[in-house]
Write a structure and sequence with these properties.
about 475 residues; alpha/beta; six-stranded mixed β-sheet; about 30% helix
Length: about 475
C-alpha cells in the first residue's frame, strides 16, 4: 500500500495518490491531471477510481479530465448531482483498490454531498481518513457553501456537528487524518500549518471535537467570525458540478508568446485585462498602463479569484522569464480559462517598442512618517479585519477595508485625494494600488507595510491579541 499527499501551497490543498497491487485511487485531484497518469504509469498501475470529497469551491478539480484520460470512475457522496457521468455512492459503501478497501462515510455539513473516505488496510484495520473539508487539523469546514440549497448555514452547521460525532469521533484515536486543506485556505477559520495528523490529537485539541460541546455551542462557534466567502467560490463549485473545458486545450490557448504589437492589439480588440505577475518591486518601477498586479510568488490563485469577478475575462500576461505556462496553469486551477497569451520578453519588450510605461510611487515607512506628521495625508489600510483590529495607525484620515472587498468599496474612495496604501508587508498594497491606479485614483505605496510602520514613531492603537477578537 502506498499513500502520497500531493500538496499545492498556493491553494493550501492536498490531493492524494493511493496505490495497492497495481490499482490506484486519486482523491481530490488538481486541474492538471497528467501528473497522476505519469505516476501510475511509472508504477505499472492503473487509475481505477477518482474520489471527490465534495464539490470544491476554492479550486477546479481535475476529476472530469482524469476520468476521460483513464476511464476511471468518478465517485461522489450521496445526494450529489452532476452533468457528467459519475457514480453516486451510498453511505458506508465500499470500494476495492488492490488489497485495500475504501469506505465512503457520508458526512454532510460543509456541503450536503460531503464525504469522508475511510481507508481499510490489507489486514482489515482502519488506517486513515481522507476527510476533505469535513475535518481539518485544528478546524472544520465552513458550512455556508452549499450549492442552491434551501438549508441555512445554521442547518448545515448542525449537520456537521452530527457528522463529526456520529461518523468521525467514534473512530480509533490512532487513525491518520489526511485533510483537503491546511493553513491559508479560506475553507475554514483556523487551519493548522500541518497537513497530516492523528485523529486522537484532534479529539484532544480541535475546538470543534470537544466531547461536552452541545450542538448549539458548536453552531455558534463554527459560524462565529466567519468571513463572507470569496466571490469565485460559488462559480468554481458549479464548474466542479457541471464540468469544464479540457485543461490541455486551455494551456495551449494561453501559453502563446506575443510581441508588443500583437499584445496591444489583442488587449484593445478583446478587452483583455493585462495581468502582471512579477514581483511588487518590479511592478512599481515600471508596468504597462492600466495593468493589474497580482504576483505569482504570493497567494496568487486565491487573490485572482477574489478580485477578478468574471471567470470568462480575457487575460493577457506579463510574467517573469519562463513563468508563462505556470501562470496559465495556476489561473486555470481557479477557473480562469480565457488567457490569450503572454508578452514575449516581458516588460523589456514593451519598453524596447517605445510604448508607454507607468510607475507607482513607493516610499519607505520613515518617509511616510515624515509626511504623516507634516501633512494631512490619507492612509488606506488593506489588511484583513483581524489584522486591522489587532493594531493600526491612529488618525481621522486612516481608512480601512480588506483587499478582498476592494471592488465593494470603490464608492468610499475620493478621486480628488491621494491615498498612501499599506498592508502587512507590501504584497497586498501593490495589488490594491494597481487596481486603484487603473481606475483613475491617486495612490502611493508604503514599502514594507505595517511591519515597517511599527518601527517608526507613528501613533498606533494598543495591540489586541488576535485570539481575543
Amino acid at each position: 500500500m502506498k499513500i502520497e499527499q500531493i500538496y499545492t501551497g498556493c491553494l493550501a490543498q492536498g490531493a492524494y495518490y493511493i496505490e495497492s497491487n497495481g490499482e490506484v485511487a486519486i482523491i481530490d485531484p488538481l486541474r492538471e491531471t497528467q501528473q497522476y497518469v505519469d505516476k501510475a504509469n511509472k508504477e505499472n498501475a492503473s487509475i481505477k477510481y477518482i474520489f471527490e470529497t465534495h464539490f470544491h469551491a476554492d479550486f477546479v478539480s481535475g476529476h472530469v479530465d482524469l476520468a476521460q484520460k483513464t476511464g476511471a470512475t468518478i465517485v461522489f457522496g450521496p445526494s450529489a448531482e452532476t452533468s457528467y457521468e459519475a457514480y453516486i455512492a451510498k453511505d458506508n459503501e465500499t470500494f476495492k483498490i488492490g488489497n485495500i478497501t475504501i469506505k465512503l462515510l457520508h458526512t454532510p455539513g460543509h456541503t450536503l454531498e460531503s464525504a469522508t473516505y475511510l481507508l481499510i488496510d490489507e489486514n482489515g484495520k482502519n488506517h486513515a481518513i481522507f476527510s476533505g473539508d469535513t475535518l481539518f487539523l485544528g478546524d472544520v469546514g465552513r458550512p455556508d457553501l452549499a450549492i442552491k440549497s434551501n438549508l441555512t448555514k445554521e442547518d448545515l452547521a448542525a449537520m456537521l456537528y452530527d457528522s463529526l460525532r456520529n461518523k468521525i469521533m467514534p473512530l480509533a484515536d490512532d487513525i491518520i487524518v489526511y485533510p483537503a486543506h491546511g493553513a491559508g485556505s479560506a475553507c475554514g477559520k483556523n487551519l493548522s500549518k500541518e497537513t497530516v495528523g492523528i485523529l486522537g490529537e484532534q479529539k484532544r485539541t480541535n475546538y470543534a471535537l470537544r466531547e461536552d460541546m452541545t450542538k448549539e455551542e458548536f453552531v455558534n462557534d463554527v459560524l462565529d467570525g466567519i468571513a463572507p466567502p470569496p466571490q469565485y467560490f460559488a462559480k468554481n463549485a458549479m464548474m466542479n458540478k457541471s464540468g469544464y473545458d479540457n485543461f490541455e486545450a486551455i494551456l495551449q490557448k494561453g501559453d502563446v508568446a506575443l510581441n508588443a504589437e500583437e499584445f496591444e492589439t489583442i488587449a484593445n480588440q478583446e478587452g483583455a485585462l493585462v495581468l502582471d505577475v512579477r514581483t511588487e518591486t518590479d511592478f512599481v518601477k515600471g508596468h504597462i498602463p492600466n495593468s493589474i498586479f497580482i504576483g505569482i510568488n504570493g497567494g496568487f490563485a486565491p487573490w485572482v479569484g477574489a478580485l477578478i469577478t468574471d471567470l470568462k475575462q480575457p487575460i493577457l500576461l506579463v510574467t517573469p522569464d519562463g513563468k508563462a505556462k505556470e501562470t496559465v496553469t495556476r489561473l486555470s486551477r481557479v477557473g480562469y480559462d480565457n488567457t490569450l497569451g503572454y508578452l514575449k520578453g516581458g516588460i523589456a519588450t514593451w519598453k524596447a517598442s517605445g510604448k508607454d510605461i507607468e510607475t507607482i510611487e513607493s516610499i519607505s515607512a520613515d518617509e511616510f512618517s515624515n509626511r504623516f506628521k507634516n501633512d494631512a495625508v490619507h492612509t488606506l489600510d488593506v489588511r484583513k479585519g483581524g489584522e486591522y483590529k489587532a493594531m493600526h495607525l491612529e488618525g481621522n484620515s486612516v481608512q480601512h477595508f480588506a483587499l478582498d472587498y476592494i471592488n465593494d468599496n470603490m464608492g468610499t474612495i475620493d478621486s480628488n485625494k491621494t491615498y498612501y496604501v499599506h498592508c502587512a508587508g507590501g504584497y497586498r498594497s501593490v495589488i490594491a494600488a494597481s487596481i486603484l491606479k487603473a481606475r483613475g485614483f491617486n495612490v502611493i505605496d508604503i514599502a514594507g507595510g505595517f511591519a515597517a510602520l511599527k518601527n517608526t514613531h507613528l501613533p498606533l492603537t494598543d495591540f489586541v491579541c488576535p485570539s481575543t477578537l
